[in-house]
Amino acid sequence: xxxxxxxxxxxxxxxxxxxxxxxxxxxxxxxxxxxxxxxxxxxxxxxxxxxxxxxxxxxxxxxxxxxxxxxxxxxxxxxxxxxxxxxxxxxxxxxxxxxxxxxxxxxxxxxxxxxxxxxxxxxxxxxxxxxxxxxxxxxxxxxxxxxxxxxxxxxxxxxxxxxxxxxxxxxxxxxxxxxxxxxxxxxxxxxxx
Length: 193
Hints:
Shape: elongated
CATH topology of the largest domain: PH-domain like
Largest sheet: 4 strands, antiparallel
Low-confidence stretches: none
Distance between the termini: 58 Å
Order of helices and strands: EHHEEEEHEEHH
Number of helices: 5
Helix content: 40-55%
Number of domains: 2
CATH architecture of the largest domain: Roll
Structural class: alpha+beta
Number of strands: 7
Strand content: 15-25%
Radius of gyration: 28 Å
Strand order of the largest sheet: 1-2-3-4
CATH class of the largest domain: Mainly Beta
């Protein structure tokens, strides 16, 4: 099967910008109340808040553009980061849990997050997911497709024993099994006469 590449929905960027805009408006209202008491402090805080808001408005689209997830036949990969790039690869053999979260605003935008936990992190109560697939739609479908790939890999991947290919190979395998059983029987009979 071909790898499945996914990007978060555009609504994730809208959600982040909305949340930060609300924070900025609340921040400005708080500073306006402070302006009545200390106009100089208000001016400095206003300038600082505007600078932070501008940086956030630049950073959110840049970070959103770097998010990418790939589901291969044997692993899940995630990529993110504006300044410091982060590449995560989780083999299916290490996945212990898949969780779906969807907050109130995410439900409004019809998106959510799938958290992938591994053996090293799932035992702790407050364990952070090894990889979070942010801003996806059809969460149950994506989760089930990942689970199907995990099951397919586990049951038919590296764990599948080599099957004899010809009748001669099968006969040799049966002869080896028979010889081993005869040796075990002789050993048991010699211990218990």
